[in-house]
Design brief:
Layout: H1 9-37, E1 42-44, H2 53-62, E2 66-72, E3 82-86, E4 92-94, E5 98-104, H3 119-128, E6 133-140, E7 148-152, E8 165-171, H4 188-197, E9 201-208, E10 218-222, E11 234-240, H5 252-296, H6 298-305, H7 313-319
Organism: Leptotrichia shahii
InterPro entries: PASTA_dom (IPR005543)
Keywords: Membrane, Transmembrane, Transmembrane helix
Length: about 325
């Protein structure tokens, strides 16, 4: 007796579902793979400077771009407005390219406490806050190489727009680690704070004037930068007192003499010009007279031509 075959609908539907899932996974996975590894789609970066932050992010995402917002303070644009972007607008790039935009948040940027950090880590933290480093000075110490020993302005100080900072970094250990750092150009109070961090202090303070530097700025030091120095030794500094040098007022006699010199100089120049003009006119007049005399002189014409234009009768008069 033949056995009756029963169709298993449960297994059939399960197989169909598994097959559909595999097809979807293959298609989706292929698109993801192509988008990440063989991405050839291009887009143009829109210009979002001057736009509100939310509106700028919207436009950039609609263009297929990713956005990184950097908060900063500026007086060029209103609050929450984009004042700079990178890469530049109009550039053609691949989709999913990260575009950085700088947004005015109206908040003062403060110097972070990076003392004790390694230089690479400190750079990363400063870059994240859009703070630029102006100078890096190295100072031998017992700290690990490339460790931040000091920062100017000191941590917590509010930075002005586009103001940069200077940092002091531990260098490799030397035979004599006590070397005077270069603090010229620093504010007196900030220099005192920086020297305190490495065991030095400011002693005598002299003043002078330098109109190219801000008031209270250190102009020179004793010992000079790079000189060996004992820990705890006091440093003498010369600072800019900002006093303006008054110009000496000229006396009435000086003013009169100066005016007379100008008058004499003008008269001399005028006399020279008049003399040159008279000489030119005289040369021109003499030249015209010479030409006229040559044209009216018959003897000159006969001499020059070798023949006489006088009538023959004149010879008889001469004989008589």
């Amino acid at each position: 007796m033949a056995t009756e075959y029963k169709f298993n609908y449960g297994k059939f539907f399960k197989s169909i579902i598994v097959l559909i899932c595999l097809v979807v996974l293959v298609i989706f996975g292929r698109r993801v793979f192509e988008r990440h590894f063989f991405n050839t789609r291009l887009t143009v970066i829109p210009d979002v400077t001057g736009l509100d932050k939310k509106e700028a992010i919207k436009y950039l995402k609609e263009a297929g771009l990713k956005v990184k917002v950097i908060n900063s303070k500026t007086e060029k644009v209103p609050l929450d407005t984009v004042h700079n972007q990178d890469p530049r607008p109009g550039k053609e790039v691949k989709v999913n390219r990260v575009v950085r935009i700088w947004v005015n948040n109206g908040e003062d940027v403060k110097v972070p406490n990076i003392i004790g950090l390694e230089l690479l880590e400190a750079r990363s933290r400063l870059k994240g806050q859009n703070i630029q480093i102006e100078t890096i000075d190295y100072y031998p110490s017992n700290q690990k190489y490339n460790t931040i020993l000091g920062v100017y302005p000191k941590p917590g100080t509010k930075l002005e727009i586009n103001q940069k900072i200077s940092i002091l970094v531990s260098s490799q250990q030397m035979i004599d680690p006590s070397v005077m750092p270069n603090i010229t150009g620093l504010d007196l109070n900030d220099a005192r704070e920086l020297l305190k961090q490495i065991g030095l202090e400011i002693g005598s303070i002299s003043q002078t004037n330098d109109p190219t530097l801000p008031i209270n700025t250190i102009i020179s030091t004793n010992p000079a930068a790079g000189t060996k120095i004992q820990r705890g030794q006091k440093v003498s500094v010369v600072i800019n007192n900002g006093a303006s040098i008054k110009k000496r007022a000229r006396s009435n006699e000086e003013i009169i003499n100066r005016s007379q010199q100008n008058i004499n100089q003008k008269e001399i120049e005028k006399a020279i010009d008049d003399t040159m003009n008279k000489m030119d006119n005289n040369d021109s007049t003499n030249s015209q007279q010479d030409n006229k005399q040559q044209n009216n002189n018959p003897s000159d014409n006969s001499n020059s031509n070798g023949t006489s234009n006088e009538p023959s009768g004149d010879g008889g008069d001469d004989d008589n």
